[in-house]
Amino acid sequence: MNTLTFSEARHLVSRTGLGVEWGSVKNLEGLSREKAVEVVLNQAAAPVRPAPAFTPWHKLEPMRDNSAEGRKDAWSIAQNEGKRLQGWWVEQMLLTSSPFVERMTLFWHNYFPSSIQKTLQPNLLHKQNLMLRQNALGNFRNLLKAVARDPAMLVYLDGYENVKGRPNENFARELLELFTVGSSEYGQADVKAVAKVFTGWGVHPSSGDFAFDSSQHDGSPVTVLGRTRAFTGDEVIDMLVEHPRTSERLVERVWQHFVSGNRPDQTTVQSWAAQFRRADYDIKALLRVVFNSPQFWEANNRGTLVKSPVELLIGTVRMANYPRESTGEMVNLCRLMGQQLFDPPNVRGWLGGEHWISTQTLLVRASYLSKVSRGNLNRRVETGLHLPPKDQQEMLAWMLAVPPVNKLPEIPGNRRLANALMLDPAFQVA
Amino acid sequence: MNRRGFLKLAGALPAAGLLPELVWAADTKTKNKTETSGKNVSSSKRRKAVVLIKLAGGNDGLNTLIPQRDYSLYTKHRSAARIPEHKLKEFPLDNGMSVNPYMTSLRRWWEQGELAWIQGVGYPHGVLSHFRSSDIWETATSAFEHSEIGWLAQVLPQYKQGLHGIILGEGLGPMAGKDCHTIAMQSPQVFLSQVDLVPDIQPISRGSTALKHVVNVQHQLHDAGRQLKEKMANPPRLGGFSTSVLGRKLESVAQMILNDVDTAVYKVEHSGYDTHANQLNVHNNLLFELAAALNSFGDTMKQHGRWDDVLVVTYSEFGRRVQENRGGGTDHGTASVQLVMGGRVSGGRVYGENPRLNDLDGDGNLHMTTDFRAVYGTLATRWFGVNNPWSQFGSVGFV
After folding, report:
1. With contacts defined as CB-CB under 8 Å, which chain B residues touch A169?
2. CB-CB: which of A165, A170, A426 is closest to B276?
3. What is the predicted ipTM?
4. Residue B13 located in a structural domain
5. Rounded to a whole number, what is the distance in Å from the CA of A168 to chain B's nearest CA?
6. pTM score > 0.80 for this model?
7. Which residues are registered as beta bridge partners of B99?
8. Parent domain of B320
9. Residues A87, A90, A92, A94, CA torsion sign
């Protein structure tokens, strides 16, 4: 049938990887569309790099109750270890042989945010990251149940303080509004009811793992979305996952991240959502549908996504082995570009798309790319940057998803052309 | 199109190069269309500015202005998150309320009549979601409508041409909208050090929305850079600003105001107000920080003779519930308080009604008694001097 051209292979790598690595593109070029998608989906997960040591929950949490001094110390530890945690993930993404797995982990981190600043528990966030990676291409129902038990999430949305008699509604609200059915499907009474269902879900004081305390659990019957019984948390999650709006909303997010900056039509959303439900919420199955769809490959959808800071920063280095900044500086650049790993701005996550580009962030992006293209990054020696394309046409097809905005340099030379293309507005989109 | 996107000239552009020049021209020659009085907006000296401070997360009005006269009603609902009674004599008001004792640095501004409070500010059918309620506040809709256009985007284009607002941070919020021209920056210094790298570029007519957006932002950026470079060539040395994150932001704002940067609004965010647990110390610290930053800002503006040209207004997406929760915090609520401060404020007064603690709504939340659109309407007519899109909500006499 139809086998992938260089451009099409490039498109698939660009949307599913971290940077358009020449080798990855060449591996997919010439395969059928279906086969290429399977290669991407079944990428063998690279091992996770060892992480730095983090102060455990049972040491860090009590510090905050002791005194103002204790709170300050706990805060400092969280800031320092938080930076090391961010650096750990940056390195993981720079060096991994399975960039698609990292991309999906990042997708779920954005979908189920938790933050260093709110939790002040880098150790828990590290564990959450491992959990997200493990479930990234698994089953959405199981993932949501794991998230509800995740200690970092329990702290982030105050679930661990949600107890019988004095429920805390934070998690219940976000579970309904953001993680599943969405704001038009429930009322304040449902929030109260769901909060009650999750009372007693907390964090064990010594292990820092999930612990259910039945003495803190209010097991009285409640009414959630019209049904009344003494629900367990998992039963509520099942009900919410099975609500059609949940799969539709997830499909819309997937569309926004992988397919196009243009709005999807409702028929597509409903069709993909239905297929997702029929596959019993298998994430890989959904992505298979998405990546094989005509919309994913449609020419009008090229260049409609703005590269996230991670894609721009890490992708550019991976793409052409450009000299890179130190880990600390990469972490800082991510922050300046508006994407602090493990620190999304709020529980909605990063809005993404055109929000990545403001007068502020474009400045940072432009200066970073300027620096990279000039090749004078700190102490790195010019290692003979390897640019595989053999001519101008190949260079354009490789580096950009759409034709450049600016005129090309008249003086020939691969290096000069690569620099010009990197500084072109077209390089900012995928 | 998502309203939180930035200035989009796509589709409305004539031949490349023509409109952008007009749009970004410094307004020394252009006139304020609705100006009737002698107030100087069109001349190049003494520009006025609103400094909008978002208290992000939902500021607990009840611990900002605490009921002194009805203290026993207050203690019925607050124990771990209670301001002790003896502290209420540090900054009492004359309406039976007291200001949080951590804000005493603002007491002299109150006594000078340059600080005012507005109570019970909210909107009917308060929504308890951060995003939705922020949207409502920032686009001035009712709880049942949606809009993509910020409230300031409905006012500022009538007020002036050129640059309308500078955001220190992110989040256009009140200034979202294609007719509202803004730049967002970390700080002026960082901005200037990098903007040289951004070449000028003409808006394009072909390409995806994303690509057009990148190009348009680049163009705005280049132009704003040019203006700021001229104005900020010799920034004044400012001493005495508090070194908190908010203090530093207000210091940057002060520098830009004193350098006569041509903009009408500065927007700054103070975050951390979503105090669901262990509220007391966290919230007190935030208010302390806020007061200290405002105090040093006011001093600086006064020293340079610009206090009459500046109006500080705080806002938050909602207040918090009267009854505290088990974690010593409070959940999302409704009506809250706003602070306004500046040389032209009719201060030393509290506007709006005291909170009625024994008359709560079905959710245990305070009823609002001043619609926030009355505050916006007041700013539109009495500060900006333009048509008021919210005249049906009345006005509040703070300026």
Report:
1. 331
2. A170
3. 0.94
4. no
5. 7
6. no
7. B65
8. 22-34+51-393
9. negative
